[in-house]
Write a sequence for this structure.
């Protein structure tokens, strides 16, 4: 029966001719009706992102726009669009302006934010990288809203630093002698090209060489600080200091995996109870010692409050920090370093200890302080993980722009916490 059926079907196909199919015609022009509002699901997270951005006061961003009604000039893109694109990008782990601009061309969520407004990566990048002061104001707003709701009280603050790979290669670090040699070569090359007065392509090369010459100059300016940092306690240099011709402010640091790479240190102060980011600082120090007081001062200036307890790890602990924080009425909860003499306890006083240091040593022996310190890891490490998941694995910008990147991550993290606490 199977053979007869197969023979019957074969003869039938031969009698009816070849199969008919609808072929793809990619050259045919089409008019497509595209309803962004209806295509995007009502429960999509980007709607919540836009609602959050709409509740922020962006008046300072609008004040900076030079295009005004009644005057010539092209209208500026709404700052809410730029901010929402960056926040949505952070939630998706995208930190590149080029990548976000590309997503705006085909990804429904990003197209919904744009609403037909054309976006290019240059403007998107400039919005973030050139607005650190304005972004600080938005971070402050994100905290104040939760303070008014009674969610954030800023009684306990947790501090931690996370080292992020800089946008500079290890081979770009040069000694002072090599930098001076490169600077001399750049001056000679520029002088020769200007004298030749070449075409447009040569002028572009001259611009690139001028920018390279400026970076070399900045690297030489940073050399004094790098050399001072390299000196050990006995006044001798450990190794010859080097600075980068790509990112002069970057420094080689010991990373969490034990390796040494160019990086910046992003310091984050957060409220322990709500895990909301309160303040952010960025520097090129390999330790967290120099960030405690600036963060405390920033919190007081922004929110007019001094926390009762400051939780920090051993890398933030120094006699100077503890004494200054004690004068501010803030108790430092940080581990006491172990003694080299096994017969002596960490809490035993040392010659020259001030009253604040003695109180700190005694405090860290109590069970209350030990329990409080456990909350530091649960707070700061969780926030650090959020930043990493948002794409903060390597900086794609240089120098001072790193602060703007950290602030956008902090705003995004606070938005997520507001969703969770609502």
């Amino acid at each position: 029966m199977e053979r007869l059926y197969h023979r019957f079907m074969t003869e039938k196909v031969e009698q009816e001719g070849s199969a008919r199919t609808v072929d793809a015609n990619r050259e045919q022009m089409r008019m497509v009706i595209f309803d962004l509002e209806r295509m995007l699901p009502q429960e999509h997270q980007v709607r919540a992102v836009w609602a959050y951005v709409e509740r922020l006061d962006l008046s300072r961003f609008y004040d900076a726009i030079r295009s005004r009604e009644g005057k010539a000039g092209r209208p500026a893109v709404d700052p809410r669009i730029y901010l929402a694109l960056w926040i949505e990008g952070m939630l998706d782990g995208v930190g590149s302006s080029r990548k976000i601009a590309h997503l705006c061309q085909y990804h429904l969520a990003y197209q919904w934010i744009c609403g037909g407004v054309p976006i290019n990566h240059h403007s998107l990048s400039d919005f973030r990288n050139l607005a650190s002061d304005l972004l600080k104001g938005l971070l402050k707003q994100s905290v104040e809203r939760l303070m008014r709701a009674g969610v954030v009280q800023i009684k306990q603050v947790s501090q931690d630093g996370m080292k992020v790979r800089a946008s500079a290669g290890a081979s770009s670090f040069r000694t002072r002698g090599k930098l001076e040699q490169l600077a001399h070569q750049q001056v000679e090359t520029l002088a020769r090209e200007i004298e030749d007065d070449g075409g447009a392509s040569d002028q572009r090369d001259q611009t690139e060489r001028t920018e390279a010459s400026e970076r070399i100059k900045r690297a030489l300016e940073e050399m004094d600080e790098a050399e001072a940092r390299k000196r050990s306690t006995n006044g001798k240099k450990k190794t010859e200091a080097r600075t980068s011709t790509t990112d002069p402010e970057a420094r080689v640091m010991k990373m969490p995996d034990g390796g040494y790479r160019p990086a910046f240190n992003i310091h984050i102060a957060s409220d322990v109870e709500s895990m909301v980011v309160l303040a952010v600082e960025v520097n090129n120090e390999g330790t967290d010692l120099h960030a405690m007081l600036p963060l405390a001062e920033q919190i007081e200036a922004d929110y007019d409050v001094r926390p009762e307890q400051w939780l920090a790890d051993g890398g933030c602990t120094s006699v100077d920090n503890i004494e200054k924080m004690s004068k501010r009425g803030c108790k430092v909860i940080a581990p006491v370093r172990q003694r080299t003499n096994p017969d002596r306890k960490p809490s035993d006083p040392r010659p020259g200890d001030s009253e604040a240091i003695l109180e700190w040593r005694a405090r860290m022996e109590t069970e209350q302080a030990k329990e409080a310190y456990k909350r530091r890891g649960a707070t700061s490490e969780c926030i650090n993980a959020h930043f990493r998941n948002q794409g903060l694995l390597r900086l794609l910008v240089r120098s001072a722009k790193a602060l703007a990147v950290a602030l956008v991550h902090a705003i995004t993290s606070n938005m997520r916490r507001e969703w969770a606490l609502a």
About this structure: The mean pLDDT is 87.
